[in-house]
Amino acid sequence: MTKIVFILFFVITGYNAVPLIENYIDEISDNLIGNGIDDGDNSIDISHLGPEAFGSPKNESGEALSQWSESSLMNPEETGEYVEGDILMPRPFMRNGIRTESSRWTNGIIPYVIEGYYSKDQRDMIMKAIADYHRLTCLRFVPRSSQEDYIVIQSKSTGCWSSVGRIGGRQEVNLQAPGCVSKKGTVLHELLHAVGFMHEQSRPERDDFVTIRYNNIRSGTENNFKKADKKNVDDFGVTYDYNSVMHYSEYAFSKNNKKTIEPKVSGVTLGQREGLSRGDVKKVNKMYNCKKE
């Protein structure tokens, strides 16, 4: 079984986000099953999330996001009332009990639909994020035709959120406009949850790399900073990624505009939302057994 997968860094320092492609790949042929992916065990361990992750979208998260602006110290997905801010596993996924596994997407192909209103610029931001995946990884987001499992990118007033991995059937990725589509990295972040990735700072050894300032964390959100159990983590031999698009910002869930996370290495910035880091790309391709270099 593929364990909880975290976006990791190739080396501790010295890497910036990978240059980002600007042009969306408009058409994808039906032969993508031969795109270089060797499909193995598809399971993703989500036991780290706990029962609190299962629920319904919250209007409170949408209201909180509506107060966010691009000058805010936090990233938009860090305003949510969900587990770790933006992870939501729908109640129907529980079926007869709490689920501890989801799945990878078969052959790395992710059918998608965009629903609701987005302006042209907002829709372009979504497509630029998708184009980055096509340029840098073997993942392929394809317009849904009749596929049973697919994601729905939507803009309901419930904040930024996604499930982790493929959960089966219609699967929502909420990108409330304008906040969740103001930066390409936020779109990349939520889509990476759907691909099967957790937050970087949840790694069990994260305390070797960052310091959590619990005295600055907003009451009731302390659990967003809990670490995963080591036995549930596969790091694929890649170390902690300060530059990951999946890392919290330094002010995530702050109650007093003071830092809640501080790196133990000087000269790094946490929580960038400009693009995939080299570590992000490497982790995606390792998770999906991509032969692409």
From TrEMBL:
| Residues binding Zn(2+) | H189, H193, H199
The reply to whether Zinc figures as a keyword in the UniProt entry is yes
Required cofactors, per record? Zn(2+)
Q: Tell me where the signal peptide lies.
A: 1-17
List, from the UniProt record, the residues annotated as the active site of this protein: E190
Q: Where is this region: Disordered?
A: 48-76
What note does UniProt attach to the cofactor annotation? Binds 1 zinc ion per subunit.
EC main group: hydrolase
Give this protein's Gene Ontology molecular function annotations. metalloendopeptidase activity; zinc ion binding
- A GO BP entry: proteolysis
Listed InterPro entries = Astacin-like_dom, MetalloPept_cat_dom_sf, Peptidase_M12A, Peptidase_Metallo
Q: Where is the composition biased (Polar residues)?
A: 64-74
What the entry lists under PROSITE patterns is as follows: ASTACIN (PS51864)
UniProt domain Peptidase M12A: residue ranges: 96-291
User: Which keywords fit this entry according to its UniProt record?
Assistant: Disulfide bond, Glycoprotein, Hydrolase, Metal-binding, Metalloprotease, Protease, Signal, Zinc, Zymogen
Enzyme Commission code: 3.4.24.-
PANTHER family the UniProt entry points to: DISCOIDIN, CUB, EGF, LAMININ , AND ZINC METALLOPROTEASE DOMAIN CONTAINING, METALLOENDOPEPTIDASE
UniProt protein name: Metalloendopeptidase
